[in-house]
Write a structure and sequence with these properties.
The chain is of the alpha+beta class and 121 residues long. Helices cover 34% and strands 26% of the residues.
Length: 121
């Protein structure tokens, strides 16, 4: 946590970034809640693919660590013999899910997209 000004704190540090956490905002305190311990800082971990099923050494099933009930499976697991091919196929499925559900564009990304779309024709 970094003090920005008296009573304002930003929830970032190198250890949190290395662990895959992302900043969800900053807090500005009136000074009353800090002394009384009325809030708790919680960091949100970035969603990732967790392999949950193998066919020998080949990963054939996975799930999103942030979404309950979202899983990914190889369509023909018996035909895949290379572990890297299985992992890549699951990662592609997860990336589509991540882009659709978890990825949010910030203001600068939105401005760039709007600019691109306006100059396409």
């Amino acid at each position: 946590m970094r003090v920005l000004s008296p009573g304002a704190y930003q929830l970032t540090d190198a250890k949190s970034k290395q662990a895959g956490y992302r900043v969800v905002g900053s807090l500005k305190s009136t000074g009353l809640a800090i002394g009384l311990g009325l809030w708790e800082t919680v960091e949100i971990k970035k969603p990732s693919l967790r392999i949950i099923k193998f066919n020998g050494l080949v990963p054939v099933g996975g799930r999103c660590t942030a979404c309950e009930g979202i899983s990914f499976h190889l369509t023909l697991p018996d035909r895949v013999t290379d572990p890297q091919v299985g992992a890549n196929a699951l990662q592609e499925q997860f990336q589509l899910h991540f882009d659709h559900v978890h990825l949010r564009e910030d203001a600068s990304q939105a401005a760039a997209r709007i600019g691109r779309e306006a100059t396409e024709n």
